[in-house]
Every structure is written in structure tokens, then in C-alpha cells.
Amino acid sequence: MTQINYLTHLPIVETFHSVQGEGTWMGVNAFFIRLAGCDVGCPWCDTKISWNTKRHPQIAIMDLVTEAVKTHPAIVIITGGEPLMHDLTELTRQLKEQGLRVHLETSGSHPFSGDFDWVTFSPKQFKAPHDSIYQQVSELKVVVKDSSDLAWAEQNAARVSANVVKYLQAEWETKSSKDLVMQYVLDHADWRVSVQTHKLLGVR
Ligand code: SF4
Fold it and tell me: Where, by residue number, does Mg(2+) bind (predicted)?
């Protein structure tokens, strides 16, 4: 039986070419690499299929990079699951070697690894972020279901650089969360509303 080398392979849920649906880079041509594995356990998670790494194939990093290069993306977005459950050093090294711009979407719940041009930090109350994330953040995005999430958002905002862009995103299934986010942004001009345009457009 062939042994898989976990330094050269990563468990992958899917890869796809689309546009970034949210945040500062919304609408930009992007190649997505969705890694398997997450131990955060958000009850409203829309990618629960990603949680168990054993359900997904180990793909060679070299093949992921080749696939990304073929799509000529403006950015490559590493997402999950929780990508920082894995050492991302080799994946980002090889992507950058090809001249690609590399972004990360993470809850920050595991030690930081890899070399990124942009880091979207979405901290979750269900598993506290690791201290190593705070100095890496480019934008902060907090999902809001109820008012405790607004306090959580401010708690995390206090730990990132002052120039980090701050977003609040209403939890998709909870109707009252939209009003909560709207009112908070109207009352606090340093925050922005995050809209998931890919869900509105019905694309990935
Ligand atoms: S951190 Fe992301 S992938 Fe993990 S449970 Fe929460 S929403 Fe789902």
C-alpha cells in the first residue's frame, strides 16, 4: 500500500474557480482551495462536510498548485474547514513561487503558518483564537447571531491593528441578526456590513 506523505499532501474538500463573494476583495477572480478538517463546531456552519478530514482525499500540493496556475486567478484563497489545522508553509511557498497572490480565511483557532498576502480573520466564540493570529490580520469578519457576538467582535477588534478593516456579517438563517448588524454599523462608523454576494447570486 502506498504511504501518503503528509508534508507534501493536504486533505481537500474541493477546489473551484469563482469570484470572492465577500469582504474587501469581493468580486475578484479567485481560485479556492477548501481544506478539510475543523474542530471549532459552529452550530450554523454551512460547510459541516469539511469537518472530518478522513472523508476527503489527500491531494499532492504540487497538483493543487498546477490546478491553480491553469485558471490564471487574481488570487488564490485558502479556506476550509479550518485551514490552520494544517501546516500551510509548503502550500503557500509553492503558490508564491508561481507568482500567485495568496489569501487565507481562518478562525485563527490554531497556530499560524504559511506566507499570505491577505488574511481574513473570523474568530468564533466556540473555540478561542490562538495568540499568533492577531499580528497577521488584514480584515476582521465576525458572524453575528445575537448581541453576545457584538461584544465578541469588539473584544477581537481591540487585539488587531488599528488599520484592519472590520466587518459584521449577519448569520444567514437568523432573521433578527440582520437588524442587529445594520443598527450596530449605523451606531459604530468603524464597522462595515459584510454581504455574502455569492449566496445572493446563487454561485459558489
Ligand atoms: S470555523 Fe468555519 S468551518 Fe469550522 S465550524 Fe465554524 S464556520 Fe464551520
Answer: 47
